[in-house]
Design goal:
Elements: E1 6-12, E2 24-30, H1 36-43, E3 62-67, E4 70-77, H2 88-104, E5 108-116, H3 123-135, E6 139-144, H4 151-164, E7 172-176, H5 185-196
Parallel strand pairs: 2-4, 2-5, 5-6, 6-7
Antiparallel strand pairs: 1-3, 3-4
The structure holds guanosine-5'-triphosphate and magnesium ion.
């Protein structure tokens, strides 16, 4: 599939405001500032399709992109979780909308879990794997910002995460990634194809 044809479809504050729940959706989830929006831009080969920021908490809505005019194939940029500086009540509200989306979105066929290779497997990441497991939803893990580590250190991080997630191995796949260097983009395309092509 041609991910470079992706274009902005809509933003939704809640599950109820998301577009019709048909076709196939793949959502990018992960901790605030992990690099989800940057990963979407690297994967779609566009500079500013998804808005990125140095300030954690940039993405506050469910942002939905279609592959060209095909509204039945969608990529979704989710708000990051775990950002401490947002007021508690707002945080709980985001968390609830996110949880609704993850549990109840029927067209959601795969999750891309984005983790900073230097800070993988936070409590929230593990919660997310539980939710995916409940739904039998496959998860592709991007250990991103791999450019921040030397090659050997990045490889070690990958091995460590693999072994810590052995119990989920039927559900998940894992790779190193860098939006900055566009490392690993082809592998993500293949995974997305496997979910989106049928
Ligand atoms: P929220 O929307 O706040 O949840 O964040 P996000 O997960 O969408 O992160 P975003 O893509 O906005 O990136 C956060 C910061 O990390 C930005 O300053 C990016 O430039 C930087 N960043 C993202 N990916 C990479 C990468 O692969 N390498 C490097 N070096 N920096 C990256
Ligand atoms: Mg974002």
């Amino acid at each position: 599939l041609k991910y470079s044809t992706a274009r902005f479809l809509t933003s939704a504050p809640t599950l109820a405001k998301c577009p019709v729940d048909s076709g196939v959706e793949v959502a990018f989830a992960g901790r605030s500032n992990a690099g989800k929006s940057s990963a979407i831009n690297a994967i779609t080969q566009q500079k500013a399709l998804a808005r990125t920021s140095k300030t954690p908490g940039r993405t506050q809505l469910i942002n939905i992109f279609s592959l060209g005019d095909d509204v039945d194939r969608r990529l979704v940029d989710l708000p990051g979780y775990g950002y401490a500086k947002v007021p508690e009540n707002i945080k709980q509200e985001w968390q609830r909308h996110l949880s609704d989306y993850l549990h109840r979105r029927a067209s959601l066929k795969g999750l891309v879990l984005v983790m900073d290779v230097r800070h993988p497997l936070t409590e929230f990441d593990l919660d997310l794997l539980e939710v995916a497991d409940d739904r039998d939803l496959p998860v592709h893990i991007l250990l991103t910002k791999a450019d921040k580590l030397k090659k050997g250190a990045a490889k070690n991080a990958l091995q460590q995460v693999r072994s810590r997630l052995r119990e989920w191995e039927d559900l998940i796949s894992i790779q190193l990634f860098s939006s900055l260097k566009r490392q690993g983009v082809e592998d993500v395309h293949q995974r997305l194809d496997s979910w989106m092509e049928d």
